[in-house]
Amino acid sequence: MLLLFADYCVILQVKTKKMKKSALIFLSIALLFTGCAKEFNQAFKSDDFQYKYEYAKECFATGKYTRAITLLEGLVIPMKGTSNGQECLYMLAMAEYNTKNYETAAEYFKKYYSTYPRGNYAELAKFYVGQSLYMSTPEPRLDQSRTVAAITSLQEYLDVYPLATRKDEAQKSLFALQGKLVQKELHSARLYYDLGTYFGNCNKAGESNYLACIITSQNALKDFPYSDMREEFALLLMKSKFELAENSVEEKKLERYQDAEDECYGFLNEYPESKSTALAEKFIEKCKKYTSTNNTL
C-alpha cells in the first residue's frame, strides 16, 4: 500500500508540473494576443497614415490578412497619388485573394489595373483578375457565366502579355475552365436524353428532348474538338437520333431512321474499340429493318 501511495504521489507531482507548465503557456499566449490586439487597435485608431500603412504591411507579411484588409480599406483613398498608392491597392487585393474572398479580390485587381495600367504590379493584377474569377467558379452543373468571364479575362492576360511570367499557370487554368464548360454541356445533354419521352416540355412524342440532346451534343463536339469527353457526346448523339426515330410520327420515321443509321456507322468508325459498339450494331440492325421495309425509292 505504501508503495502504491508513493507512486501516486509521484504521478500527482508530474501532473501538477504539467498543469503549471500548460497554464504558463496559455498565459503567455493570452498576453501575446492581448498585446497584438492592443497594437492593432492603436494602428486602426491612429491618424498617422504612414504608421497605419507600415503596420498593415507587417500584418500582410505575417499572414494576418483580415487585419491587413481592415487597415488597407481605409488607406486606399488617402494613399492614392502617393508613392505607396500602388502597393496599398495591390496588397489589399492580394489580402482578399489569400482569404479566399475571390470575387472581392477580382474587383480590387480590376481597380488596380484600370488605375495603374503601367504600374509595378500591372501584369500580376491582370493575371489575378482571371485567376480570382477562376477560383470563384461554381461546380459544372451550376450556371457557368463566371467561368466564361474567367476564360475571357485569362485570355486577355495572355494576349496583352505574350511573354507573361504566369503564362503556364494561366494556360493550366484555361484548360480547367474549358473542362468545366464541357462538363456543363455533357450534364445538359444527359438531362435532355434522360427526359426522353417526357411530354411536359415536348410538342410531339419526346421530340423536343431528343432534339435538344442532339443539338447540345453536336455543338459540344464542334466547340470542344480536343475534349476527352467526345465519345460520351457521340454516344448520346447516336442514342438520341435512334430514339428520335423510334418516337417520331410516321411521315418522319424513314428519314430519321436513315439519319440514325448513318450516325451509328460514324460512331463505329470513330470509336471502333468502344464498349458501346454492340449497341451501335443493334441500332443499325433495327434501322435497316425499318428502312428496308419502308423505303419505296
Q: What's this entry about, in short?
A:
The chain has 297 residues and is mostly helical. The chain has helices at residues 2-45, 49-61, 65-73, 76-79, 85-98, 102-115, 122-135, 145-160, 167-195, 207-223, 230-246, 250-270, 277-294.
Can you give a write-up of this model?
By secondary structure, the protein is mainly α. 77% of the residues lie in helices and 0% in strands. The longest helix has 44 residues. The protein is elongated, with a radius of gyration of 32 Å. The N terminus is likely disordered.
Keywords:
single chain; mainly alpha; 77% helix; elongated; disordered N terminus
Rg computed from alpha carbons, rounded to a whole number of angstroms: 32 Å
Instruction: Enumerate the spans where pLDDT stays under 50 for 5 or more consecutive residues.
Output: 1-12, 27-33
| Count of DSSP-assigned helices | 13
Task: Summarize the amount of helix as a percent range.
Answer: over 70%
Overall number of strands = 0
- Mean pLDDT value: 87
Percentage of residues in DSSP E strands = under 5%
